[in-house]
Amino acid sequence: MKITMIGAGYVGLVSGACLADFGHTVVCIDRDSDKIASLHAGRMPIYEPGLDVLVAENVRQGRLAFRATMRDAVAEADAVFIAVGTPSRRGDGFADLSYVYAAAREIAGALSGFTVVVTKSTVPVGTGDEVERIIRETNPEAQFAVASNPEFLREGAAIADFKRPDRIVVGAEEARAEAVMREVYRPLYLNQAPIMVTSRRTAELTKYAANAFLAAKITFINEVADLCEAVGADVQAVARGIGLDNRIGSKFLHAGPGYGGSCFPKDTLALVKTAQDAGTPLRLVETVVAVNDQRKRAMARKVIRACGGSVRGRTVALLGLTFKPNTDDMRDAPSLAIVAGLQDAGALVRAYDPEGMEQARPLLPGVAFAEDAYHCAEGADAVVIVTEWNAFRALDLDRLRRAMASGEAAPVLIDLRNIYDPVSVARHGFKYCGVGTQR
To answer: Is the pLDDT at 290 greater than 90, yes or no?
Structure first.
């Protein structure tokens, strides 16, 4: 099939490359000419493991191309995917759909023959209806159908998620649109990935509901972690104990500094606004949003307490800045609030991240950036593990301790991801502080 992907950002580029790898002919469109030039040169605008190799191979095979204009690519396409950004709108927190609607208007003027226009972007309920209205108003003669096909990609594991999905959700109102979407995903037949066909509005809401539920699991275990610290329990053991219940499951039950990234923060907020507008407020999700925002700042206070109640004039080394490992995404990363809290308390902050420092520099003024974890720890009074990169899971603790400031008190290792065994860390001469444990 011939597929056009509008938007060469995270979702569009990963989806386009994977669809090309399925054997389809894919053209990715992006208005950012610098991004298109970089892609032509083989440079990825995002960090996603394996994406550069996947893109290069499919470009070489002639199945994947990049352009800055869409007219010809849309006219030739069997399906056109809209994969542009839907950031939180400034002022009210609702999803900003201006990029989606602008894409719909431009697509309308380029359609030729029956085409399925697919919203891949995460959009509120009813967006597909408005996309259809815009196209019909702009080009009354167009032959098309609008479908919804939300993505469920985890940053850092997006290629595997696309090629081996738990499910494929398609919201289609016409049989012709459903037939085209089944053909798009036909290469996944051997993987037995279930295709769930629903109404458009149901598909749109499914994406938001899924992210809100996962965000609620994270927030739940984080609050349980606070209770564990207060009563002398171990949150990791509690999480294992409840996660072994098949009705609950073990995923997203890892206590930490709160969720961030491109999806959960904006999608939970957008769902809250949608529900309020519909007169059916989601009080649980509203609380999840509020608790998560507060938790990020609370992690700075946790660091300060672990350092004896004051960090004024002291150096704190942060290992990890991105909201999760295997990405360079700094959007709503907990590190942003942690750094702000530490700087407000008078700390000197030094940081290292394997992939995120280029993105982090303009967001973290006053932070000194190091070339690796050990240089980051030089002369520091405390080391804080913020992101659980694999590179931080097996640090040479003796070398780390030697690099840190020497004094009467033991150097402090604050593990906000609970990746180290407290007893082992203490054996290397550290004062250890985890999340959800008093050990």
So the answer is: yes
Number of residues written out for the chain = 439
Q: What was the pLDDT predicted at 189? A: 78
What is the C-alpha separation between 169 and 54, in angstroms, rounded? 24
- Report percent pLDDT > 70 for the chain: 99
Is residue 147 within 8 Å of 117, Cβ to Cβ? yes
Q: What does the pLDDT read at residue 146?
A: 98
Q: Is the pLDDT of residue 356 over 60?
A: yes
Provide the residue type at 351 as one letter: A
d(CA 369, CA 330): 15
Q: How confident is the model at residue 383 (pLDDT cuts 50, 70, 90)?
A: very high
Q: Is 439 a residue whose pLDDT tops 60?
A: no
Task: Write down the mean pLDDT value for the chain.
Answer: 95
SS3 121: coil
Of 18, 28, 228, 263, which one is the catalytic site residue? 263
CA–CA dist 418, 433 (Å, integer): 9
Mean pLDDT for 292-320 is: 96
Please answer whether residues 9 and 83 qualify as being in contact, where contact means their C-beta atoms are separated by less than 8 angstroms. yes
Q: For residue 223, with 0-12 CB atoms within 10 Å meaning exposed, 13-18 middle and 19 or more buried, which class applies?
A: middle
**Residue 240 tokens, joined:** 């294992």
Q: How far apart, in Å, are the Cα atoms of 245 and each of 234, 238, 239, 240, 250?
A: 18, 12, 10, 9, 8
For residue 89, what pLDDT is reported? Answer: 86
Q: Is 263 an annotated catalytic residue?
A: yes
- Integer Cα distance of 406 and 409 in angstroms: 8
DSSP assignments along 246-264, one per residue: TTT-STT----S---SSSH
* Residues 253, 239: Cα–Cα separation, whole Å: 6
State the Cα–Cα distance between residues 181 and 3, nearest whole angstrom: 11
Alpha helical stretches, state H, 139-282: 158-163, 175-184, 200-231, 235-243, 264-277
Distance CA 19, CA 32 (A): 22
Residue showing tokens 């949608």: 274
- Ramachandran quadrant class, 28 (left: phi over 0; alpha: psi -120 to 50; beta: rest): beta
Q: Are 68 and 34 in contact (CB under 8 A)?
A: no
User: What is the pLDDT confidence band of residue 174, given thresholds at 50, 70 and 90?
Assistant: very high
Which tokens belong to 350?
């030094």
| Residue with the larger pLDDT of the pair 82 and 407 | 82
CA distance 239 to 3: 43
Sheet containing 431-433: order of strands: 368-369, 348-352, 315-319, 382-385, 412-415, 431-433
**Residue reference for tokens 């180290």:** 420
DSSP letter at 50?
Answer: T
